[in-house]
Amino acid sequence: MRIDVVTIFPDYLRALELSLIGRATTGGPLEIGIHDLRKWTHDRHRTVDDTPIGGGAGMVMKPDVWGEALDELLSAPPPARPDHEADQGGQGGGPSQGGAPVLIIPTPSGEVLTQRIAEDLATREHLVMACGRYEGIDARVAEHYASRGVEVRELSIGDYVLNGGEAAALVIIEAVARLLPGVLGNPDSVVEESHGASGLLEYPVHTRPVSWRGLEPDPALLSGDHGRIRRLRRDQAIARTAQRRPDLISRLDPASLDSADRAA
Ligand code: ADE
Q1: Where are the stretches annotated Disordered (predicted)?
Q2: Complete DSSP assignment for 136-157
Q3: Are the beta carbons of 139 and 64 closer than 8 angstroms?
Q4: What's residue 95's pLDDT?
Q5: Burial tier of 253 (Cβ tally within 10 Å: 0-12, 13-18, 19+)
Q6: How far is 217 from 69, CA to CA, in rounded Å?
Q7: Atom 4 in ligand 1: residue holding the nearest Cα
Q8: Is the ipTM of this complex over 0.85?
């Protein structure tokens, strides 16, 4: 997968050089390009914003500058795929969405990012992310590319407002990149986590020492009885989800619950 990010703060994205994502970009399944939006300006001041038409607070990012940047990046050919990946799609075995780039615009007025959206994006070959600042990017930019058949996803990472799209882009990239085959050391890590197939939050986890500051995990975890451990963890996941995220409980498929689940 290739991800191109356009921003006026390229250094903000340097965190992508670290840890598992950084490793995935050095000979791994991910290529990342960070681009300074000002490269596509033509005036002496390298202007990227202007006052809002119709008045109001703040500044709006100019569509003409974004248009030049995105025309160039959206028309770049996708990276060559190794033979064994051709026509297989991404993780999960779903159909490949092909090499058509997806334009992602992080914005607090977007659709809220979910694990399902991250899973879908992880099947794509090319993501182009447009990080706005100030009051955002002129709305015609999203409209223009959508009308030309580009898949445009305006995504929010939650119901709060950040100063720009960069932190949100980091979140989206991490949520997507960790799903690419070979990025996580242990692929099982993505199987049982929160927001996975069970629809529940993950159960609490513990490690040694068994007793710490007078606190001990449930003794069932030390029993070696895998059936008992599985049951305990499921009960804990249900209790935790009911307490913290009742909205997730009400969305559970009743057919996914057994009689012990209902008792929990
Ligand atoms: N830009 C500013 N706030 C944001 C948010 N909550 N999500 C995505 N992009 C943003």
Answers
A1: 74-105
A2: -B-THHHHHHHHTT-EEEEEES
A3: no
A4: 46
A5: exposed
A6: 53
A7: 108
A8: yes
- Ligand 1 centroid–CA 109 distance in Å is 8
Residue ranges and CATH numbers for the domains of the chain are 2-187 (3.40.1280.10), 192-263 (1.10.1270.20)
Q: Whose CA is nearest to atom 5 of ligand 1?
A: 108
Query: Mean pLDDT for the chain?
Result: 92
* Probe target for ligand 1 pocket from 8, 155, 157, with the most ligand atoms within 8 Å of CB: 157
By three-state DSSP, how is residue 112 classified?
Answer: strand
CA distance 222 to 229: 9
89-131: pLDDT as tens digits:
444 444 456 689 999 999 999 999 999 999 999 999 999 999 9
Tokens 């069970």 belong to 198
Closest CA to 75 of 172, 179, 150: 150
- Ligand 1 centre to CA of 196 (Å) is 24
